[in-house]
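Would you mind giving me a polypeptide sequence along with per-residue structure tokens?
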Amino acid sequence: MFDIYEIEWVNALYQIAAFGVLLWLLKKFAFGPIMDMMEKREQHVADQIASAEKNRKDAEKYLAEQREAIQAARQEAKEIVENSKTMSDQQASDVLANARKEADRMKQSAVAEINTEKEQAISALREQVSTLSVLVATKVIEKELDEKEQEKLIQDTLKEVGEDL
């Protein structure tokens, strides 16, 4: 009857042909689109990786630029502080120099005023001395002097008083 080991070649060929057609149909309608989709997905992932790598490099570049900008800003701030300190020191020196000049000017003005007042006091003193000299001379001599003799007496007295001063 039927032997297990007997192969029906017609069925086997038909099954092989059906299997081949099935493989071709699967390749055409299933594996082909799936492979295309897998290739597209692989390309998409590769593009995303490349984009991420580019973004990472851009971020590193931007970070380096920002670090340079921060360093430049720090340097500029340091220079501004140094310039401000230098300017404030210069202004302090200028204020001090102006104050010294003003003090010297005030001192010279005071000395000049003192000298003027001294000269006025000496002049007033001389006038008083001459007046007193005339009075003393008048009383001592008890005689009336003419104007010429009186003027001579005043000048002599002033010379004597001037030499004492």
Observations:
- Helices lie at 9-141, 147-164.
- The longest helix spans residues 9-141.
- The mean pLDDT is 85.
